[in-house]
Write a structure and sequence with these properties.
Mean pLDDT: 85
Distance between the termini: 70 Å
CATH class of the largest domain: Alpha Beta
Bound molecules: adenosine-5'-triphosphate, magnesium ion
Radius of gyration: 27 Å
CATH superfamily of the largest domain: P-loop containing nucleotide triphosphate hydrolases
Strand order of the largest sheet: 2-1-5-4-3
Structural class: alpha/beta
Strand content: 15-25%
Number of helices: 19
Largest sheet: 5 strands, antiparallel
Helix content: 40-55%
Oligomer: single chain
CATH architecture of the largest domain: 3-Layer(aba) Sandwich
């Protein structure tokens, strides 16, 4: 058997890209089933440095450089970069050093398109889900119900967030997730748990810290030993229950300040002791925590301990509010129509263009949750195949009044001077955006696409207030 031919045949049938580099990171072998990922032909790639082909990569971000430096493989690593043609691509790669006589002489990397891997994982999860439908519930055995498949959103900001979240699924580092109410934090933490190879078969335990009586903190988190105090039973705490899995501390900022200190100690040592017990127990729970206000503000207000924040903030995810990703509204709307068609036994196919305009122009303070409930409400009152009417809270109407030119462009049938009308409009618009950003000037400037200083000047001019942090 001709081994060279056999090897070529295997590579051609592998359906994965393969790059081999020498110790100086120059390409010595290059194969790709379709040239969509690297954006370069093998003839052009050979002899070029990896940094020449993927010009965005640096020694700190290149998997090849990392592997050659450390001599250890990097397996199933998600990386995104601009390819030779300048197109942004994401791949799942495994990079392995080539060692000859104990010396590193280069490295090889096999890679697949990240989207293909996502599709595959969706298939696996839909298989899991089918099993669950038979059980009559979406609930998976590990206590979760969401996977990445359930997170609707194709906007760039959501795509990047999903990619980042997927990338950290197999790490053990704590995650701090920030997002306004209803943005989908719970979906993300559950999806991360379910995308982890090792933890997904273990429990996902969620504790809402706002609902936690502070006096019961220790018994709930650390468990109790029988006889430890009057009436105590032998019960494991949340750390033991989530051992090997994930412990999600929802609204961590609502936890009592002193208890946050106790929690920090466990996160540092990985050791607990049941209340009334003497034995130390090692626990390995991946910690994820959520906040629905910016952490810096929570620290300033003294409701989140700084030291705990530093411990949790190893991986920081921000779920953007819906008003900052309006392109996702049609997708989410259709998804919710699908969901409620099934639940309510209806056959609604969509919303009218007028209703869609309304949905697109509303600021959604309650985010995706509010959109979901709005669709549910409208569907209950719709007997036709299209939703023609939708009711939104006053804010929408208020804003439409504010920006409805007829309100102030004319006074007693006479047009006002243009600069006066424009100024009035500008003031109302800035006021609205500041309301949406809770007075955060930087955010408002970003949303209005003006330099921060310009916004400060206008805020001053119109006698408004904003937070200059
Ligand atoms: N991207 C999304 N795709 C589909 N559904 C979503 C998405 N984001 C949120 N939802 C839906 O919106 C609702 C609220 O989501 P979730 O509970 O994750 O929000 P949250 O950020 O945890 O809010 P809170 O801070 O109030 O707890 C859920 O019913 C969820 O199914
Ligand atoms: Mg939540």
């Amino acid at each position: 058997m001709d081994y060279k031919y056999l090897l070529q045949l295997i590579i051609a049938n592998l359906n994965q890209g393969l790059i081999v580099v020498d110790v100086n990171l120059n390409v010595v072998f290059y194969y790709e089933p379709s040239s969509d990922i690297g954006g370069i032909s093998p003839e052009d790639a050979i002899g070029k440095s990896i940094y020449e082909i993927f010009y965005e990569l640096k020694p700190e971000t290149s998997t090849f450089a990392h592997v050659i430096k450390n001599g250890k493989p990097l397996i199933e690593y998600v990386q995104c970069y601009c390819n030779y043609k300048g197109k942004r691509v994401c791949t799942v790669t495994s990079t392995v050093p080539l060692i000859e006589d104990g010396k590193i002489i280069g490295a090889f990397e096999i890679y697949r398109d990240f989207n293909q891997v996502m599709k595959l994982s969706k298939k696996v999860f839909s298989y899991d889900k089918d099993k669950n439908i038979v059980k009559g519930s979406n609930e998976l055995d590990n206590g979760t119900q969401y996977t990445f498949d359930d997170i609707i959103g194709e906007s760039e900001i959501m795509y990047e967030l999903k990619e980042k979240a997927y990338k950290v699924a197999n790490s053990d580092s704590p995650i701090l997730i920030y997002g306004e109410t209803g943005t989908g934090k719970e979906l993300f933490v559950q999806a991360i748990h379910n995308a982890s190879y090792t933890r997904k078969n273990k429990k996902f335990i969620s504790q809402n810290c706002a609902a936690l009586p502070s006096t019961l903190f220790e018994s709930i988190f650390f468990g109790t030993k029988s006889g430890g105090f009057t009436g105590a039973k032998e019960t494991p705490g949340l750390f033991e229950l989530s051992n090997g899995g994930t412990l999600f501390l929802d609204e961590i900022n609502s936890m009592d300040y002193a208890n946050q200190g106790k929690l920090l100690r466990v996160l540092q040592d990985g050791i607990i002791r049941r209340v009334g017990g003497t034995n130390t127990i090692y626990v390995d729970s991946r910690i994820m925590a959520s906040v629905n206000e910016e952490p810096a503000e929570l620290i300033n207000k003294n409701v989140l301990r700084k030291d705990l924040y530093y411990r949790l903030n190893v991986i920081y995810l921000v779920v953007p509010p819906l008003r900052e990703r309006k392109e996702d509204i049609p997708l989410l709307t259709n998804k919710f129509i699908e969901v409620y068609n099934e639940r309510l036994g209806k056959r609604i196919v969509g919303v009218s263009s007028k209703v869609m305009d309304k949905l697109m122009n509303y600021s959604w303070p309650g985010n995706v949750r509010e959109l979901k409930h709005t669709i549910e409400r409208a569907m209950n009152f719709t007997d036709e195949s299209v939703i023609n009417c939708i009711s939104l809270p006053n804010e929408y109407n208020e804003f439409s009044k504010e920006v409805n030119c007829s309100n102030y462009l004319c006074s007693e049938n006479e047009y006002k001077p243009l600069d006066e009308s424009v100024a009035q409009f500008e003031k109302q618009l800035i006021k609205k955006v500041l309301r949406e950003t809770n007075g955060n000037c930087s955010k408002a400037a970003r949303m209005l696409k003006v330099p921060r200083q310009t916004l400060f000047n206008k805020v001053k001019k119109y006698n408004l207030n904003c937070n200059k942090k």
